[in-house]
Amino acid sequence: MLELRAVTAGYGRRAPVVRDAHLTVAPGEAVGLLGPSGCGKSTLARVAALLHRPDAGEVVLDGTPVRGFRHRAPREQRTAIGVIFQQPRLAADPRLRLADLIAEPLRATGRRASAADRVRELAGTVGLTPDLLGRRPHEVSDGQLQRACLARALSLEPRWLVCDEMTAMLDASTTAALVRVVEDYRASTGAGLLSVGHDRTLLTRWCDRTVPWETVAAG
């Protein structure tokens, strides 16, 4: 279970973006978090992905409270969550080829020997042709770069996926393709999903349940 308990978070204690938020995602469940731009849902997604320390409350992962965030999180917890952001160009190092981008988590966790094979496998899964793997972010489209970012998120076989408006900048065909990749991954692994967005139709079709922001956090 991924649990957010009474989470208050922001970028300054005097003006929290999120107040007293409660949300749970069960193993294998797909939960959509629906809210307008600027409401704080992306901040809450970062807390859920262990990328932002809350000012109050706690994150509980598989029954164990999270005590560290970002690089201070225990490796077992940190690698249990894969995250895909809305803007791939802000999430990708512009100096890296796509192959190296996908391989980043593998190399960071000491899996260099298997990285090349895993990158090829993931590239095929997300629909990247071999010629694209040698290109850098400025040499590919937003959709191609987001495919690489999704491959990176799947590289360590996480038990939880956090998608923060993953498809907001993509056309309909790429959106459908990436949602299908996520769903195939969930079906084969039993991973849970938290998908954050403002597109009610997409979240309703994609997720097992969709929760509106006003029922998650205090105003």
Automatic annotation (TrEMBL):
Keywords: ATP-binding, Nucleotide-binding, Transport. SUPFAM superfamilies: P-loop containing nucleoside triphosphate hydrolases. One of its GO terms (molecular function) is ATP binding. InterPro entries: AAA+_ATPase, ABC_transp_ATP-bind, ABC_transporter-like_ATP-bd, P-loop_NTPase. Gene3D superfamilies: P-loop containing nucleotide triphosphate hydrolases. The keyword Nucleotide-binding applies. It comes from Streptomyces griseoincarnatus. This is ATP-binding cassette domain-containing protein. Residues 2-218 form the ABC transporter domain. Pfam families: ABC_tran. Belongs to the ABC transporter superfamily.
